[in-house]
UniProtKB/TrEMBL annotation:
UniProt xrefs under InterPro entries: MTH1187/YkoF-like, Thiamine_BP, UPF0045_domain
Domain Thiamine-binding protein intervals: 3-92
Coiled coil: none
Stored Gene3D superfamilies: 3.30.70.930
Matches recorded under NCBIfam families: MTH1187 family thiamine-binding protein (TIGR00106)
Protein name: MTH1187 family thiamine-binding protein
Entries under Pfam families matching the protein: Thiamine_BP
Family per record: Belongs to the UPF0045 family.
Length: 97
């Protein structure tokens, strides 16, 4: 499964990069395949391990912010691995035709 999620601290002002970095750090330390862009962090793995990482990432932000917003989207497709790379490669292949 691939989960794309965004954790946003609320009530801490406009500059939230430091808080978001706490969440991304948790994902990077998890050892699971992942990507971070301007809007979301995507992480790939089995249901329980991915959800555990999301929970820890939220907790890292929650430890410093009075309120946290979580947006999550999941692609649940048993048997597929390396989806983070293969899905993008498929689109790139069509773009190059």
């Amino acid at each position: 499964m691939i989960v794309a999620f965004s954790v946003t601290p609320l009530g801490v002002g406009e500059d939230v990069g430091e808080y978001v970095a706490d969440a991304v750090r948790v994902v990077r330390e998890s050892g699971l395949p992942h990507r971070t862009d301007a809007m979301f962090t995507s992480v790939e793995g089995e249901w329980d391990e991915v959800m555990a990482v999301v929970k820890r990432a939220v907790a890292a932000v929650e430890a410093r912010a009075p309120r946290v917003s979580l947006v999550l989207k999941a692609d649940i497709r048993p048997g597929v691995t390396d989806g983070l790379t293969s899905k993008v490669a498929t689109v790139e292949r069509y773009l190059s035709e």
